[in-house]
Design goal:
By secondary structure, the chain is an alpha+beta fold. It has helices at 16-21, 32-40, 42-45, 56-68, 114-126, 144-152, 176-180, and strands at 22-26, 72-79, 85-95, 98-105, 134-140, 156-163, 166-174. Helix content is 32%, strand content 31%. The radius of gyration is 16 Å and the shape is globular.
Amino acid sequence: MPRAESPRGKPREARGVCKTLIALKAAGPEDEAIVLSLRNDPEIRRWFFNPDPVAPEAHARWYQETLTGLSRRLYLIMKKGTEAPIGYVRFDRTAPDVAEISVAISPSHRGRGYAQAALVDACRRFREPGEIRRMVARVLTENEASMKAFRSAGFVPVSTGSMNGRAVSVLELSDPASYFNS
Protein backbone atom coordinates (compact mmCIF):
# COMPACT_ATOMS: atom_id res chain seq x y z
CA MET A 1 0.00 0.00 0.00
CA PRO A 2 1.47 3.39 -0.94
CA ARG A 3 2.57 5.77 1.77
CA ALA A 4 1.36 9.34 1.83
CA GLU A 5 3.40 11.93 -0.01
CA SER A 6 6.05 13.39 2.26
CA PRO A 7 6.22 17.16 2.71
CA ARG A 8 10.03 16.90 2.76
CA GLY A 9 10.21 15.84 -0.87
CA LYS A 10 10.88 12.15 -0.31
CA PRO A 11 9.09 9.72 -2.62
CA ARG A 12 6.26 7.69 -1.33
CA GLU A 13 6.49 4.04 -2.27
CA ALA A 14 5.68 3.43 -5.90
CA ARG A 15 2.62 1.33 -6.32
CA GLY A 16 3.86 -2.14 -5.49
CA VAL A 17 2.78 -3.65 -8.76
CA CYS A 18 4.72 -1.07 -10.77
CA LYS A 19 7.92 -1.43 -8.78
CA THR A 20 8.08 -5.04 -9.86
CA LEU A 21 6.68 -4.66 -13.37
CA ILE A 22 8.87 -1.96 -14.89
CA ALA A 23 12.49 -1.83 -15.91
CA LEU A 24 14.52 0.90 -17.53
CA LYS A 25 16.58 0.28 -20.65
CA ALA A 26 19.08 2.74 -22.05
CA ALA A 27 17.84 3.78 -25.48
CA GLY A 28 19.80 2.43 -28.42
CA PRO A 29 19.80 2.86 -32.21
CA GLU A 30 17.16 0.14 -32.55
CA ASP A 31 14.69 2.21 -30.48
CA GLU A 32 14.53 5.28 -32.73
CA ALA A 33 11.16 4.42 -34.32
CA ILE A 34 9.40 3.64 -31.02
CA VAL A 35 10.68 6.87 -29.47
CA LEU A 36 9.38 8.84 -32.48
CA SER A 37 6.05 7.05 -32.15
CA LEU A 38 5.83 7.99 -28.47
CA ARG A 39 6.94 11.58 -29.10
CA ASN A 40 4.29 12.01 -31.80
CA ASP A 41 1.41 10.28 -30.01
CA PRO A 42 -1.34 12.97 -29.88
CA GLU A 43 -2.16 12.25 -26.23
CA ILE A 44 1.51 12.60 -25.24
CA ARG A 45 2.18 15.52 -27.58
CA ARG A 46 -0.60 17.66 -26.11
CA TRP A 47 1.43 17.94 -22.88
CA PHE A 48 4.61 19.09 -24.64
CA PHE A 49 5.51 22.78 -24.60
CA ASN A 50 5.37 22.63 -28.39
CA PRO A 51 2.40 20.39 -29.30
CA ASP A 52 3.29 20.20 -33.01
CA PRO A 53 4.34 16.74 -34.26
CA VAL A 54 8.05 16.11 -34.81
CA ALA A 55 9.10 15.54 -38.41
CA PRO A 56 10.95 12.23 -38.90
CA GLU A 57 14.06 14.01 -40.24
CA ALA A 58 14.21 16.35 -37.22
CA HIS A 59 13.66 13.39 -34.90
CA ALA A 60 16.49 11.43 -36.56
CA ARG A 61 18.93 14.33 -35.96
CA TRP A 62 17.70 14.80 -32.35
CA TYR A 63 17.90 11.06 -31.67
CA GLN A 64 21.44 10.76 -33.03
CA GLU A 65 22.52 13.70 -30.84
CA THR A 66 20.76 12.07 -27.88
CA LEU A 67 22.65 8.80 -28.31
CA THR A 68 26.06 10.32 -28.98
CA GLY A 69 26.04 13.51 -26.94
CA LEU A 70 27.07 13.94 -23.33
CA SER A 71 24.27 16.25 -22.21
CA ARG A 72 21.27 13.94 -22.57
CA ARG A 73 20.29 10.46 -21.43
CA LEU A 74 17.23 8.59 -22.59
CA TYR A 75 15.75 5.47 -20.99
CA LEU A 76 12.85 3.40 -22.24
CA ILE A 77 10.33 2.32 -19.64
CA MET A 78 9.73 -1.38 -20.22
CA LYS A 79 7.13 -3.72 -18.83
CA LYS A 80 9.21 -6.45 -17.21
CA GLY A 81 9.01 -9.72 -19.06
CA THR A 82 8.21 -8.03 -22.37
CA GLU A 83 10.04 -6.19 -25.09
CA ALA A 84 7.31 -3.56 -25.21
CA PRO A 85 8.29 -0.02 -24.22
CA ILE A 86 5.47 1.86 -22.49
CA GLY A 87 7.21 5.22 -22.34
CA TYR A 88 10.49 6.98 -21.74
CA VAL A 89 12.37 9.10 -19.22
CA ARG A 90 14.81 11.73 -20.46
CA PHE A 91 17.48 13.74 -18.66
CA ASP A 92 18.91 16.91 -20.18
CA ARG A 93 21.91 18.39 -18.44
CA THR A 94 21.23 22.13 -18.35
CA ALA A 95 24.31 23.07 -16.29
CA PRO A 96 27.28 21.08 -14.98
CA ASP A 97 25.39 20.21 -11.78
CA VAL A 98 21.75 20.42 -12.97
CA ALA A 99 19.65 17.93 -14.93
CA GLU A 100 16.12 18.45 -16.20
CA ILE A 101 13.98 15.34 -16.26
CA SER A 102 10.91 14.56 -18.33
CA VAL A 103 8.72 11.49 -18.64
CA ALA A 104 6.17 10.24 -21.16
CA ILE A 105 3.89 7.23 -20.73
CA SER A 106 1.82 5.75 -23.54
CA PRO A 107 -1.87 6.55 -23.10
CA SER A 108 -2.80 2.87 -22.75
CA HIS A 109 -0.55 2.56 -19.67
CA ARG A 110 -1.48 5.72 -17.79
CA GLY A 111 -3.01 5.84 -14.34
CA ARG A 112 -1.14 2.81 -13.02
CA GLY A 113 1.81 4.48 -11.27
CA TYR A 114 4.35 3.67 -13.99
CA ALA A 115 5.54 7.28 -14.29
CA GLN A 116 6.25 7.63 -10.57
CA ALA A 117 8.09 4.28 -10.45
CA ALA A 118 10.11 5.20 -13.55
CA LEU A 119 11.01 8.63 -12.17
CA VAL A 120 12.29 7.21 -8.89
CA ASP A 121 14.30 4.47 -10.65
CA ALA A 122 15.66 6.85 -13.31
CA CYS A 123 16.75 9.45 -10.75
CA ARG A 124 18.61 6.79 -8.81
CA ARG A 125 20.22 5.50 -12.00
CA PHE A 126 21.19 8.90 -13.36
CA ARG A 127 22.71 10.30 -10.18
CA GLU A 128 26.47 10.52 -10.42
CA PRO A 129 28.09 11.00 -6.99
CA GLY A 130 28.98 14.61 -6.39
CA GLU A 131 28.14 15.63 -9.94
CA ILE A 132 24.38 16.26 -10.15
CA ARG A 133 23.27 18.54 -7.32
CA ARG A 134 19.84 19.46 -8.65
CA MET A 135 17.16 17.70 -10.67
CA VAL A 136 14.34 19.82 -12.02
CA ALA A 137 11.20 19.24 -14.03
CA ARG A 138 9.10 21.72 -15.98
CA VAL A 139 5.51 20.55 -16.20
CA LEU A 140 2.41 22.14 -17.69
CA THR A 141 0.45 22.98 -14.55
CA GLU A 142 -2.78 21.66 -16.08
CA ASN A 143 -1.16 18.23 -16.52
CA GLU A 144 -2.44 16.91 -13.21
CA ALA A 145 -1.21 13.35 -13.77
CA SER A 146 2.36 14.48 -14.41
CA MET A 147 2.28 16.88 -11.46
CA LYS A 148 1.10 14.03 -9.23
CA ALA A 149 3.77 11.63 -10.55
CA PHE A 150 6.60 14.10 -9.92
CA ARG A 151 5.32 15.02 -6.47
CA SER A 152 4.95 11.34 -5.56
CA ALA A 153 8.51 10.77 -6.75
CA GLY A 154 9.77 13.40 -4.31
CA PHE A 155 9.81 16.57 -6.42
CA VAL A 156 8.46 19.76 -4.86
CA PRO A 157 7.11 22.83 -6.67
CA VAL A 158 9.58 25.74 -6.50
CA SER A 159 8.21 28.26 -9.01
CA THR A 160 5.66 28.91 -11.72
CA GLY A 161 5.74 30.72 -15.02
CA SER A 162 4.40 30.42 -18.51
CA MET A 163 5.54 29.11 -21.87
CA ASN A 164 3.69 29.59 -25.12
CA GLY A 165 0.79 31.07 -23.14
CA ARG A 166 0.42 28.02 -20.88
CA ALA A 167 1.08 27.87 -17.13
CA VAL A 168 4.22 25.93 -16.18
CA SER A 169 5.29 24.62 -12.78
CA VAL A 170 8.93 24.03 -11.99
CA LEU A 171 9.51 21.16 -9.57
CA GLU A 172 12.81 20.29 -7.99
CA LEU A 173 14.50 17.45 -6.20
CA SER A 174 17.39 19.12 -4.40
CA ASP A 175 20.62 17.39 -3.47
CA PRO A 176 19.88 14.01 -5.04
CA ALA A 177 22.97 12.48 -3.44
CA SER A 178 21.64 12.86 0.10
CA TYR A 179 18.10 12.09 -1.06
CA PHE A 180 19.02 8.70 -2.44
CA ASN A 181 21.35 7.76 0.39
CA SER A 182 18.52 7.93 2.93
